[in-house]
Amino acid sequence: MIRSNPEELIRKTIARFVDAEIIPVAQELDNKGEFPREIFEKLARMGLFGIRYPRNKGGAGGNTTLYCIICEELARGLVSVASITAMQCLMGTNFLFHYGTEEMREQYFLPAMRGEKIGCFCMTEPDAGSDLGAITTRATEVDGGYLINGMKTWVTDGPEASFYTVMCQTDPKKRLRGIGYFFIPRDFPGVSTSPRFECLGTRTTPICEVAFKDVFIPKEYRLTPEGEGLNAFLKIIAEIRAMTAALAIGLQRAAMDDSIKYANERVASGQTIGKFQLIQAKIANMATNLEASKLLTYKSAAMIDAGRDALKEATMAKYFATEAACSAADECTRIFAGYGYSMEYTAQRYYRDTRFLLSGGGTHEVLQGNIARWAGV
Amino acid sequence: MNIIVLIKQVPNTTEVKLDPKTGNLIREGVETIINPDDLHALEAALALKETHEAVVTVLSMGPPQAIDAVSEAMGMGADKAVFLSDRAFAGADTWATSYTLGKAIQHMGEVDLILAGRQAIDGDTAQVGPQVADFLDLPQVTYVFDIQAVHADYVVVKRRLEDGYERIQCRLPALLTVIPGAGKPRYPMASRLLLACREKAPIQVWNAADIRVTTAEVGLEGSLTQVMRTFAPKFERRGTMLEGGTVDVVRTLTAHLRENKLV
Ligand SMILES: Cc1cc2nc3c(=O)[nH]c(=O)nc-3n(C[C@H](O)[C@H](O)[C@H](O)COP(=O)(O)OP(=O)(O)OC[C@H]3O[C@@H](n4cnc5c(N)ncnc54)[C@H](O)[C@@H]3O)c2cc1C
Ligand SMILES: Cc1cc2nc3c(=O)[nH]c(=O)nc-3n(C[C@H](O)[C@H](O)[C@H](O)COP(=O)(O)OP(=O)(O)OC[C@H]3O[C@@H](n4cnc5c(N)ncnc54)[C@H](O)[C@@H]3O)c2cc1C
């Protein structure tokens, strides 16, 4: 039986889309810094937002590996488009999909798959980033539902959103064991958003704060059942880290491709700069780091697909691939030298966009602490 | 109505590189795509499906890796596919290619409309569409960029001319060769792509026996033409820089032109 390999087929399709629809406009989109509505709608028409969900429930019938492949290819074009897509496929819709009622699926999940509604994920607070046990957004049980009070920040896609999946504290004494995820439509009374943040990188991704003041939500809008919040968090955080690693791989490839092209073109002292051993060393390191990043990342994705606990592997992948992306973007600006400092070239964008990958999915100081603990200290 | 779309997988480059030793096309490392004109033919068929009761079947002949072109067409919305893949088909010239495609179409049952691309970007002959029509004894319209109306027994189409277009009514069944029109070919849908990868997918893989041809009738053996040698032509142009004052330069140039009988 002759059949295509699904991973190669999806990669080829997205690569073609990125080459034709994203790369030619990437600089312009980044300069404008507006939400890339047109591309978002095209991605929706290709049914990519449902890549991780089963086909009989409005998804495309793929898995985490395919999700990571899509994120990687998109990030090769523009990291912010990839991060918007990543949000819609996973964090923005995951708990709604798993725990929402049939009515919520109809009203929010399916429109999100079609790109008509945008979902966000709110964990970070002004006074609680790495230490999520310290969040103070409260869900208080009242007659028929919950009252939500608190403030979330760094909400990716917040300004464009229709609904939020919000991490709330139900019992402050329990810290992380007291957390749960709650579903809050943006148009509910008491929800407000700040103006959009002005950011260093991933400039088409809109980010803002979201405040909840005595927002009443019905009982069924509590997504994770009591006692399951922490487990749900640990599971999704593994997939978030695998995905972030995939974004980092895409960014590495973009920086490396442009570096190689430039090294083969630019002439100094009568030869192309790629003939200099110190430039060759940079490319050799990029190529080797890229290969290692792929192995770590797709190993963790395959473990998630096999239903195994992949938190350690995904954490290592995110840490390694992102550091490699930072190094590749840094070296890229050096290979481009003066032009690496010019806003007309791509190198500066790669350099700025790495900073998002450093925080998203956990800072590397925190990740190194985790990894060291798992290693035995 | 039953629509068949002929699609060919081609290397994604208009600069086909030849192996200087064997004269064969270098395919390694070159990304493959559906021939661009064929994407437009498929888009036209899928657009018809939106307004008419139509079943779109893609037909492609190629080596096993050309299955990706078939899967992509399924991803775009084709209902089914027939993939002709057999070592016996290899090395076919345009005549043998058309014969094999024609035989397969006869084997596929009733058809109302066959769409092909005008021309493949690698072989570049633009012969296959017309030859398939001839083999099946069907009317053909080439260079179609707009299918304006489809009725039970005829179509109205616009075909491109050098200095304008012709509007043609053609009885069905017919074969049209298609060039890019107004509709941009759609991207595939992820869910359909993944379905096309499954064993259960409605993609039939046929060999020579399946379409009732002997190996002598198809492929290299069945080809009427044989390639003696393939080579990339060498361009050896040498320029001469004329130096000196303007008057001297013009004098030298005109003398040179006269000498070479160019003026
Ligand atoms: C572009 C962007 C988009 C984002 N999108 C979202 C989103 O959609 N939803 C969301 O919830 N959040 C989002 N975030 C927030 C992100 O998850 C946080 O920035 C991250 O968790 C770190 O928190 P913080 O910024 O408060 O840093 P802090 O926790 O204040 O850390 C400050 C410094 O202290 C270090 N540090 C903290 N704790 C430890 C420790 N235990 N050991 C060692 N060092 C430590 C950190 O590594 C860092 O260097 C986004 C951030 C960015 C930049
Ligand atoms: C490496 C190489 C070796 C070759 N060897 C020979 C040889 O020995 N002798 C010789 O005469 N020719 C040879 N050819 C040419 C080869 O036969 C043609 O590529 C082939 O027959 C199709 O012709 P074309 O590419 O010109 O397509 P065109 O006639 O330009 O294609 C028009 C349309 O026909 C349809 N079509 C064409 N091919 C197919 C297909 N396989 N499946 C489905 N639909 C199709 C498509 O819709 C396409 O848009 C060779 C070509 C290559 C690249």
| CATH architecture assignment of the largest domain in chain A | Up-down Bundle
Q: Could you tell me how far the N terminus lies from the C terminus of chain A, measured between alpha carbons in angstroms?
A: 51 Å
CATH architecture assignment of chain B: 3-Layer(aba) Sandwich
Largest sheet of chain B: 9 strands, mixed
Q: In order across it, which strands form the biggest sheet of chain B?
A: 9-8-7-10-6-1-4-5-11
Q: How many structural domains of chain A?
A: 3
Share of β-strand residues of chain B = 15-25%
The CATH topology of chain B, please?
A: Rossmann fold
In short:
The complex is a heterodimer of chains A (377) and B (263). Chain A has 377 residues and is an alpha+beta fold.
Folded structure, characterized:
Chain A starts with 5 loop residues before the first helix and ends with a helix. Chain A is α+β, with helices and mostly antiparallel strands and 377 residues long. In chain A, helix 5 runs antiparallel to helix 8, helix 8 packs antiparallel against helix 9 and helix 8 packs antiparallel against helix 11. In chain A, strand 8 and strand 9 form a beta hairpin. Chain A has twelve helices and nine strands. Chain A is globular. Chain A folds into three domains: 108 residues, Acyl-CoA dehydrogenase/oxidase, N-terminal domain (Butyryl-Coa Dehydrogenase, subunit A, domain 1), CATH 1.10.540; 109 residues, Beta Barrel (Butyryl-CoA Dehydrogenase, subunit A, domain 2); 146 residues, Butyryl-CoA Dehydrogenase, subunit A, domain 3. By secondary structure, chain B is an alpha/beta fold. Chain B has one domain: 3-Layer(aba) Sandwich (Rossmann fold), CATH 3.40.50. Chain B has a nine-stranded mixed beta sheet with strand order 9-8-7-10-6-1-4-5-11, with helices on both faces. A two-stranded antiparallel sheet of chain B has the order 2-3. In chain B, strand 8 and strand 9 form a beta hairpin. The longest helix of chain B is centred in the first third of the chain and has 16 residues. The radius of gyration of chain B is 23 Å and the shape is globular. Chain B starts with a strand and ends with a helix. The relative contact order of chain B is 0.18. Classes of the chains: A alpha+beta (377), B alpha/beta (263). Chains A and B meet through helix 1 of A and helix 2 and helix 5 of B. Bound molecules: flavin-adenine dinucleotide (2 copies).
